[in-house]
Amino acid sequence: MEILRLVLLFVHILGFAALLGGLLVQAREPQKRINAAMRDGAGTAFLAGLLLVGVLESLGSPDHAKIGVKFVIGLVILVLVMANVRKPSIPQGLYFGLLALTLANIAIAVFWSTAHA
């Protein structure tokens, strides 16, 4: 089970890397849009995160508050990305909102620690 947890965590991180990369690659572009990296990254991160929670539940008791917050942020990102994937461009506010939500979700994963050494 530990190997499965690590594989899912790796895929989850790759999903967020693709999402963030898809956002940052167009930072200097005047017209922002939802690109394939953002679409695939958001979906991959969300699905891998759900599967990861299932594995974590079988290994013990994960931090449900942290998982709940990350779930809501991830779902909002996924809905916003998928709702705008066919549009030729997106507003600057939506772009920066997606960037902020993505960075917030990553920060929560890194700084909201459940282990106190």
Task: Give a short summary of the structure.
It is built from four helices and no strands. With 117 residues, the protein is mainly α. The chain crosses the membrane at residues 6-25, 37-55, 67-85, 94-115.
Q: What does this entry look like structurally?
A:
This is Integral membrane protein. Keywords: Membrane, Transmembrane, Transmembrane helix. The chain crosses the membrane at residues 6-25, 37-55, 67-85, 94-115. This protein is an all-alpha fold and 117 residues long. It has one domain (2-111). Helix content is 74%, strand content 0%. It is built from four helices and no strands. The protein has helices at residues 2-24, 36-59, 64-83, 92-111. Helix 2 runs antiparallel to helix 3. It starts with a helix and ends in a 6-residue tail after the last helix. The model has no long low-confidence stretch (mean pLDDT 94).
Low-confidence stretches: none
Question: What is the H-and-E element order?
Answer: HHHH
Number of domains: 1
Number of helices: 4
- Assembly annotation: single chain
What gap, in angstroms, lies between the N and C termini?
24 Å
Helix content: over 70%
Count all strands and give the number. 0
- Report Rg: 15 Å
The structural class is: mainly alpha
What would you call the shape?
A: elongated
The proportion of residues in beta strands is under 5%
Mean pLDDT: 94
The biggest sheet amounts to: none
